Amino acid sequence: MAPREQWGTRAGFIMAAVGSAVGLGNMWRFPYYTAENGGAVFVFLYLAMTALIGLPIMLAEMTLGRGARQSPIKALEHYGGKRWMPLGFLFVAAGFLILSYYSVIAGWTVRYFIQAVRGFEGAPADLFGSISQGTPAIAFHLGFLAVTIWVVSNGVKGGIERASTLLMPVLFLVVVGIAVYAWTLPGSGEGYSYYIGWNPSEFVKTGADGGFWAQANVISEAAGQAFFSLSLGMGAMLTFSSYLKKDSHLPNESLVIASADFGVAFIAGLMVFPLIFALGLSSAIGESTVGALFITLPRVFQEMGGVTGHVVGTLFFGALTVGALTSAISLLEVVTSSIIDTFGWARKRAAWVMGATAAALGILPAMSTDALGYMDKIAEGLFLVLGALGLGIFVGYVMKDPVGEVSKGTKGIRWFGVWRTLLRFVVPPIVGFVLIVRLRDIALATLAWFE
Ligand code: TRP
User: Fold this and answer.
1) Of the candidates 370, 11, 342, 294, the residue with the CA atom closest to the CA atom of residue 162
2) Average model confidence (pLDDT) for the chain?
């Protein structure tokens, strides 16, 4: 068998992992969840979730991947025997499912990118209606996925690492640049208070829409968003870590990745809301997150007009597309590497066959945004949560010597005991709670279909 592929450099691995983490979740979901659920109060809750369950699970995935040097299914078998392989199958299923609809949304962003180059015309709501479903949505979904497949088929170093190292710095610069530009605009100030003002009264859900489950939902959103944004719960970080050398310092890497991920998410809000307020469009921020990104922002660029509108709009949707691409790459890589390790296929064949399968599955969410929403509920809402729970239990209780494995490449770090304690006693109850909230949510959504 050919020796396992490896990253070329440490920075290459970091860029690829940050590329996986930074995506639509950061630039789209995070700012709106935050603004809607209490601003700074939500940010603190999110950071607490990242520290208490996100980082421990990321470290668990990295430990498994680097230790076993195998993709998820084989890595679980390696440390836990055959009966843990189904968890790996769940990962692959989640990867397929998420990739199939993620690529549909990414297709919209490509379409918007092209539109931004040309200049937005007409009513943005009509534009969204015409591109989000049906033939155009299918076409851009397929095109986006083809590029993703092409990168993955070129291998870990020559494809994924190269693309991420090239694209991620550009994304950072653009996001920071637009945020700074927005700050210089008169009237942007109110955008900041809308986004991260300290708003406990919005955080605590009371009144008609309040009560226990409403509050439980906000808390589980914070946890779910942390998993999704950090690419956890389906073996993406595990797979990427399987291409690491033994001397890499896993705790440091995980801190760098999580910080960069949070940084981009936070700054994304600093560009979006000040822009919207500076152009006087705050009343157009709709109820749905889809509306905010794909309807309000095009109006912002329209109102800006002239060269500025073209340039800022193009940069914005370009950055969004880049973020989506490097994330989709990691989703496809989980599926591809599993096939390579399990069936011994060549990389090119595995990438194209698996990518084509996800492409076919994505026709459904490209036809109907309702189907897309439901698939997201199942994959992000359920599979990732189950996956994270499984990972916590596996590394916390089943794996023989996780502390011995994670500490390779580090010298004299003493808080690994804390990590294991979090995995054993903090992760399962919190994630278990999230699971209950999500199951209820899915049951309600399913019942609503039959009404
Ligand atoms: N983290 C990405 C985002 O925020 C999405 C993503 C990529 C992902 N790979 C993943 C989510 C693996 C969960 C698991 O958009």
Assistant:
1) 11
2) 94
Asked if 318 and 113 count as a contact pair (C-beta separation under 8 A), the reply is yes
Q: In angstroms, what is the span from residue 21 Cα to ligand 1's centroid?
A: 5
pLDDT in tens, 242-292: 999 999 999 999 999 999 999 999 999 999 999 999 999 888 776 566 667
From the CA of 98, how far away is ligand 1's center (Å)? 8
**Residue in 228, 235, 230, 218 with CA at minimum distance from that of residue 381:** 228
Q: Which CA distances in Å does 324 have to 18, 28, 88, 262, 333?
A: 12, 11, 24, 16, 14
Contact indicator for 2, 316 with CB cutoff of 8 Å: no
Least confident of 93-97, 347-351, 445-449: 445-449
Find the angle CA(77)-CA(333)-CA(150) to the nearest 5 degrees: 150
Residue type, position 193, single letter: S
Give the pLDDT confidence of 153-191 residue by residue, as tens digits: 999 999 999 999 999 999 999 999 999 999 999 999 999
Query: What is the DSSP annotation of 328-379?
Result: HHHHHHHHHHHHHHHH---HHHHHHHHHHHHHHHTHHHHH-HHHHHHHHHHI
Tokens 């299918």 belong to which residue?
Answer: 138
User: Could you tell me the distance, in angstroms and rounded to a whole number, from the CA of residue 20 to the centre of ligand 1?
Assistant: 6
- The pTM of the full predicted model, rounded to 2 decimals, is 0.96
Which amino acids bring their CB within 6 angstroms of ligand 1? Answer: 20-21, 23-26, 228-229, 231, 234, 236, 327, 330-331, 384
Query: What is the per-residue pLDDT across 294-337, written as a single tens digit (0 to 9) for each?
Result: 888 999 999 998 899 999 999 999 999 999 999 999 999 999 99
* CA–CA distance, 404 with 212 (Å, rounded to integer): 42
In angstroms, the CA 236 to CA 193 distance is 35
Collapsed DSSP state (helix, strand, coil) of residue 407: coil
Per-position b or e across 404-437, b if 16+ CB within 10 A of its CB = ebbbebeeeeeebeebbebbeebbbebbeebbeb
DSSP-assigned letter for residue 283: G
How sure is the predictor about 428, in pLDDT bands with cuts at 50, 70 and 90?
very high
Residue with structure tokens 């801190």?
Answer: 255
**Cα 60 from Cα 229, distance rounded (Å):** 16
